[in-house]
Write a structure and sequence with these properties.
alpha/beta, Rossmann fold, 9 helices, 10 strands, globular, binds fructose -6-phosphate
Length: 264
């Protein structure tokens, strides 16, 4: 795991946006894995700006979102498809047919999960997967106890996640308790994984993910198995890490090495 600790949430977004821009510059036909939630919003704003200023293009890219509520149609304002249209897709030059979000209104959701896995495979696999982090350590909607090799499937949300996401629903509005989510195995298959976490309310989950044991009790700890996982944190989210000075030291060494290699 590469651990990058930056002063603010804005710095985290800027770092993440640069990684996406570099990915698309190196490989315009990249397959990108995307997330919803509050964390990636600032990153998406930066990507929109970069696209509008023609610093980056999504015209040849494909995207796959991590998850979707089961039981919400795509045009429901709380669906993750709707979120992506509003916060990214409508404002960039991506081909609409090249954006995939699990089908929350599928009549046969089990078959829809298998189809999603097949679509990812047919696209050649995910090059760069963006992740947020749940306060309980979830990635996608892989809640604690999720199988570490799981694939796209239907998952029940924990009461904690339902409560965390209740802020997006009007009082009394129907809020789904089930989701379709890429599995942890699906996420681990991505060539590169970028997890962003900001704010003090993520500090305990960040510590469990990085310094805790590899365990289904903290699904994000599965990233310890990934060859190219980059975790980008603001100071608040990193605050509980015991070895924080060591992670800063490694990152300084990495940067110095990169500089040396670039100047040769
Ligand atoms: C979203 C997703 C979730 C969120 C996580 C953090 O597609 O899969 O795992 O990334 O719940 O959400 P925020 O960013 O709202 O704190």
């Amino acid at each position: 795991m590469q651990i990058v600790i930056l002063p603010t949430a804005d710095d985290v977004a800027a770092y993440g946006a640069q990684l996406f821009i570099r990915q698309l510059t190196d490989k315009p036909q990249s397959v990108l894995g995307l997330a919803t939630g509050s964390t990636p919003l600032a990153l998406y704003r930066l990507l929109i700006r970069a696209c509008q200023q023609q610093e980056v293009s999504f015209a040849n890219a494909k995207t796959f979102n991590l998850d979707e509520y089961l039981g919400l149609p795509a045009d429901h304002p709380q669906s993750y498809r709707y979120f992506m249209q509003q916060h990214l897709f409508n404002a960039i030059d991506i081909v609409p047919a090249n954006t995939a979000v699990p089908d929350g209104s599928a009549t046969d959701p089990v078959a829809a999960c298998q189809r999603y896995e097949q679509q990812i495979a047919d696209a050649g696999g995910i090059d760069l997967q963006l992740l947020g982090l749940g306060r309980n350590g979830h990635i996608g909607f892989n809640e604690p106890s999720s199988g570490l090799r799981s694939r796209t499937r239907i998952k029940t949300l924990t009461p904690a996640t339902i409560a965390d996401n209740a802020r997006f629903f009007a009082p009394g509005e129907y809020q789904p308790h089930l989701s379709i989510t890429m599995g942890i195995g699906t996420i681990l298959d991505a060539r590169k994984v970028l997890l962003l976490a900001t704010g003090a309310n993520k500090a305990a989950a960040v510590k469990a993910m990085i310094e805790g044991p590899l365990t289904a009790a903290c699904p994000a700890s599965a990233l310890q198995l990934h060859e190219q996982a980059i975790v980008v944190l603001d100071e608040a989210a990193a605050a509980d890490l015991s070895d924080i000075e060591f992670y800063r030291h490694i990152e300084r060494e990495n940067q110095a090495l990169l500089k040396r290699l670039a100047s040769q």
